[in-house]
């Protein structure tokens, strides 16, 4: 928890910005400490009505007195936004980017080489307060500023610091893209359950509740997930037969290849935006 209130400016009012604002205010951060800039009137009005925060369509005025600037815009327009803000942003202002694929060296070129910058990779469950975020700070970020960033992302779930910026690409493959992996598995299981005769409602609810329960077991157990799997796999039983079938189909290799494909694409994007 941070002891003082900092002025936090969000550039962009999309889903992730909305999630972070909701997380901050739900955890006691005063609405007076937050300002949002976005050209979308509906997005601004929604946030203003829900949280009583100040909103504007002027990026420069939003960051003028900010202690922390959170860049929550699409990667394709981040350079334009950053160059605009570089004209007014203070040297000690902390810049936090949640734009996928844009490396710190690009942000430093657009702002200033001496600006404190944190690059982060949150995931979409942050919108429900159950997110996972990896963070990397350049050498200009102070210990106090690290605490501020931790507080912001911890209001929407779990966060961790990364030793190297290249680890952001790994986080993209491991947690950033991962909700879609699980959703695909749920889709496949739902189709199978309906083929077995269950109603669509029963199929969906049984699968999602089982997934929720499995995650709760893993989070609340001191055992490794491999041990938890062994505990529910009785010799000669139905689960053992199912697991053997998955192994026969080389599920391990397929999942690894999928995650590696996500990692490779993340690295390609970082190289593209870093040029």
Can you characterise this structure?
The chain folds into 2 domains: 8-168, Rossmann fold (3-Layer(aba) Sandwich); 178-268, ProC C-terminal domain-like (ProC C-terminal domain-like fold, Orthogonal Bundle), CATH 1.10.3730. Helices cover 54% and strands 13% of the residues. The protein contains 12 helices and 8 strands. Helix 7 (167-176) packs across helix 12.
Topology:
Blueprint: E1 8-11, H1 15-26, E2 34-37, H2 41-51, E3 54-56, H3 59-63, E4 68-71, H4 75-85, E5 94-97, H5 104-110, E6 117-121, E7 131-137, H6 143-154, E8 157-161, H7 167-176, H8 178-195, H9 200-219, H10 225-231, H11 238-248, H12 251-274
Parallel strand pairs: 1-2, 1-4, 2-3, 4-5, 5-6, 7-8
Antiparallel strand pairs: 6-7
Helix pairs in contact: 7-12, 8-9
Index terms:
275 residues, alpha/beta, Rossmann fold, ProC C-terminal domain-like fold, 2 domains, 8-stranded mixed sheet, 12 helices, 13% strand, elongated
The CATH homologous superfamily of the largest domain is called NAD(P)-binding Rossmann-like Domain
Task: State the CATH class of the largest domain.
Answer: Alpha Beta
Total DSSP helices: 12
Major beta sheet, specifics?
A: 8 strands, mixed
Q: What is the typical, i.e. mean, pLDDT? A: 95
CATH topology of the largest domain: Rossmann fold
Specify Rg, calculated over alpha carbons: 21 Å
- Class based on secondary structure composition and strand pairing: alpha/beta
Care to give the gist of this entry?
This protein has 275 residues and is α/β, with parallel strands linked by helices. Helix content is 54%, strand content 13%.
